[in-house]
Amino acid sequence: MLRLQALRPGTFLFLCRQASKGGKPIDSDTLLRLEDGYKELVASDSKSLLKKHLKKDLFEKLKKKTTASFNSSLLDCIQTGLSNHDSAVGIVAPEPEAYKTFAEIFDPIIEDFHKGFKKTDKHPECCFGKCNDFANLDPDNKYILSTRVRCGRSVKNFPFISCLSENAFAKLEAMISGALNTMSGSYKGSYLPLSGIEKSVQQKLIDEHFLFRDCDRFLKTSGAKRFWPAARGIYFNEARNFVVWVNEEDHLRIISMEKGGDIGKVYERMIGGVEALEKHLDFSRDERLGYLTFCPTNLGSTIRASVHIKLPNLSDNPKEFWKLMDKYNLQRRGTRGEHTKVEDGVYDISNKRRVGLTEYEAVKEMYDGIRALIDAENKIFK
Ligand code: ADP
Ligand code: DAR
Predict the structure, then answer these.
(1) Is residue 248 lining ligand 2, measured as CB closer than 6 Å?
(2) What is the pLDDT of residues 252-265, one digit of tens each?
(3) Distance between CA 241 and CA 219 in Å, rounded?
(4) Which one of 66, 175, 326, 361 has the fewest CB atoms closer than 10 angstroms to its CB?
């Protein structure tokens, strides 16, 4: 994969126009690793969307393709899914152009994960809607421990995390931390480079759900850990209810979180943070896919609105629990986030879909789902 400096505006567009011509032919080693990895994937009992949609004829059609801008190969996209057969998805985009060059594998996976966003569909314009439509679902704090609403953003003219050169990483971190240092009022705070945070403090921040974990094996094998911990960091406002992750999986994860179930207030705070940052940073947005991210599961609105919630009765009735989760397009994660276990009955429940619905609709899908779960927790078991 060719490592270029951050592209000057204009150069990037020129390179995209070259996209149709593709990049350099892939080398024999990459081709061999692709062939062997694909053979093992096909022979495995993987349930990943990659295995489901990358049929042999499509693999043969894509295996030698590369992007014009950064020479990304199919291997750069699917190494994570070839190395981790227990992936749910198994593919990432090293750069924006990958979504075009490898559209024939990305589009069916996007349609599948986001439950029906076809390759002919267009993601809606950004619409945050009315935050006060989301009243506190649990004012007595019987079920919801905390609420978090986050979105992802990529800075224009930079490739994604696995394709950044060391210089581009440094340039990107400087741009983002510069924008963060302009935050004012209740958003005022400080940016902490990860390399400057002691390990014990890092662990405490991870345990308190503020800081990202040290890059799980899925991210590691996708190339997201290059030059780690360089150019990674976290921004907190003074109240510690507004957080920005820098260069973890996406260039930015803009996060609002607090104890309790006041979803509207948490959502409103995230919106304010996004709007303040977009005055200083240009974000990558595709005409059809919406805001662009490293992982196709986070495209479009990029919104994940979640609650940490205890539902002891529903937990004893998994059939009913999952029926409601499916009905409301909800996703369940462990207490410490993705790929972690549920501890003390605390579930991380959020919207699953992010593409094909506005920011408001994504939050509403979570809101309606959580309300249904709480109703079921009460009614069915009275
Ligand atoms: P994301 O993809 O949104 O970053 P992860 O699954 O990686 O989410 O979780 C990131 C961190 O956010 C984890 O520590 C997780 O426990 C925490 N988290 C997620 N939702 C909530 C919530 N509603 N309240 C508190 N912490 C949360
Ligand atoms: N575990 C990987 C990632 C799926 C979505 N999560 C992200 N992007 N953090 C998988 O393919 O299952």
Answers:
(1) no
(2) 999 999 999 999 99
(3) 26
(4) 326
